[in-house]
Amino acid sequence: MLNETVFLQQLQSKNSKEQAFRELITQYKERLYWHIRHIVKSHDDTDDVLQNTFIKVFKNIDNFKGDSKIYSWMYRIATNEAITHINKNAKRLQITNEETQELAINNLQSDVYFEGDEIQLKLQKAIATLPEKQQLVFNMKYFQEIKYKDMAEILETSEGALKASYHIAVKKIQDYLTKD
Predict the structure, then answer these.
(1) Which residues contact 133 (CB under 8 A, 6 or more apart)?
(2) DSSP label of 144
(3) What percent of the chain is predicted at pLDDT more than 90?
(4) How does pLDDT run across 93-126, given as a tens digit for each residue?
(5) Average pLDDT, stretch 81-95?
(6) CATH topology for 1-113?
(7) Contact between residue 81 and residue 161 where contact means Cβ atoms under 8 Å apart
(8) Ordered alpha helix ranges (H), the chain
(9) Which pLDDT does position 107 carry in this prediction?
(10) What is d(CA 70, CA 11) in angstroms, rounded to the nearest whole number?
(11) Using one digit for the tens of pLDDT, what is the confidence trace for 19-73?
(12) What family is this (predicted)?
């Protein structure tokens, strides 16, 4: 991967934007897919949100000032798009966001793209019981191994707050998994 400043210049240049954007998609598509997938659960919904994320990135790259890493900026867009998607689904189905999450978890069992076993399913159910912010922090740290420093940039909050959220989330998940 190129130097981030040079890459950003290519993304913002009319002459090299399309080629640089293809490179951006190649570099980040899989990581963003899994980030979104952990939020919305469904493969089809993830594909939709991922597409919307890249459309937003493409449309707004010229306004990106480089205050954060491109990666962090894209993760923030992906996170917001995923949450917006959940909110729209909840509104469309006239149910709460929590019920939307529960529905998504229940649909995981019949999702041909879900390769998890009973334990994975139970973990997903435990994660779904967490408040939205704790879900995000847990998924980013546990599944994607994102550093707190990068997470702080993506979620625009302090590392200390993220560490506390993660610790609380882990405790709640442990309690959920051992309650039976």
Answers:
(1) 155, 165
(2) T
(3) 59
(4) 888 877 777 777 777 666 666 666 677 878 888 8
(5) 88
(6) Rna Polymerase Sigma Factor; Chain: A (1.10.1740)
(7) no
(8) 4-12, 17-40, 43-60, 70-93, 97-108, 118-128, 132-138, 148-155, 159-178
(9) 73
(10) 10
(11) 999 999 999 999 999 999 988 988 899 999 999 999 999 999 999 988 888 999 9
(12) Belongs to the sigma-70 factor family. ECF subfamily.
- CA 171-175-180 angle, to 5 degrees, is 165
Instruction: Check: CB of residue 49 under 8 Å from CB of residue 87.
Output: no
Where does the chain hold its CATH 1.10.1740.10 domain(s)?
1-113
Output Rg (C-alpha) for the chain, integer angstroms.
17
Distance CA 149, CA 89 (A): 31
CATH (residue range 116-180): 1.10.10.10
Stretch(es) of the chain classified as CATH 1.10.10.10: 116-180
Query: Are the C-beta atoms of residues 25 and 1 closer than 8 Å to each other?
Result: no
| Spatial distance between the Cα atoms of 112 and 109, rounded to a whole number of angstroms | 8
